[in-house]
Amino acid sequence: MRPSSRRFNLSRLVLWAALCFSGGTQAALPLPDMSHSLTLLKPAKPARNFTLPDLDGKPHKLSDYRGKVVLVNFWATWCPPCRREMPSMERLSQRLKDQPFVILAVNQQEEPDKVFVFTGQLEPSPTFPILFDRDSAISHAWGVPGLPASFIVDKAGRVAYRAMGGREFDHPEIEQAIRALLKK
């Protein structure tokens, strides 16, 4: 490829990315399907404990949820797949509301007011705790390579599954994997 062709293609790529992330073409571009696969960790690894504040400043400690299956989701409002998967997380939460299951959505480096406005626009609006990892120390400790990243912690406090990228959390396959952990 000639150098001038590479510059032209790079310029087109930069322009396309700028339009997509500015919201200029989001409505016009078809969105890809969200995945519903999880990666089983064999053996399950102990989950690193953390304490993070929620929207009201109340601290949530992961170890306080021992005995429950916990979906820990690292996300941000500027992340398109994060935005897309949030309603499916709430639908899953509602389906499993009578089970020992909880979702902890760990926001990365954003102000609570911005997150509050964003979550208020969602349908359905999340009822699970939204936590704040303002300096991304917890995401670094968990080895999060990018957003969104999700981990399913079993009742014993071990990471049993992980998922990198957006997911349809209310998909029957994901729900089935969580229900299997709930039975253990």
Rg calc: 18 Å
CATH first level of the largest domain = Alpha Beta
From the structure provided, what is the oligomeric state, counting identical versus distinct chains? single chain
In which range does the helix fraction lie? 25-40%
Q: How many strands? A: 8
The overall pLDDT, averaged over residues, is 87
What do you see in this structure?
- The protein is an alpha/beta fold and 184 residues long.
- 34% of the residues lie in helices and 24% in strands.
- The protein folds into two domains: 30 residues; 152 residues, Glutaredoxin (3-Layer(aba) Sandwich).
- The protein contains five helices and eight strands; from the N terminus they run αββββαβαβαββα.
- Strand 2 and strand 3 form a beta hairpin.
- The chain is globular, with a radius of gyration of 18 Å.
- The N terminus is likely disordered.
Which short descriptors sum up this protein?
six-stranded mixed β-sheet; 2 domains; globular; 184 residues; disordered N terminus; Glutaredoxin; 8 strands; single chain
How would you summarize the topology of this molecule?
Layout: H1 3-22, E1 39-46, E2 51-53, E3 59-61, E4 69-75, H2 80-95, E5 101-108, H3 112-120, E6 130-133, H4 137-141, E7 149-153, E8 158-164, H5 172-183
Parallel strand pairs: 4-5, 5-6
Antiparallel strand pairs: 1-8, 2-3, 4-7, 7-8
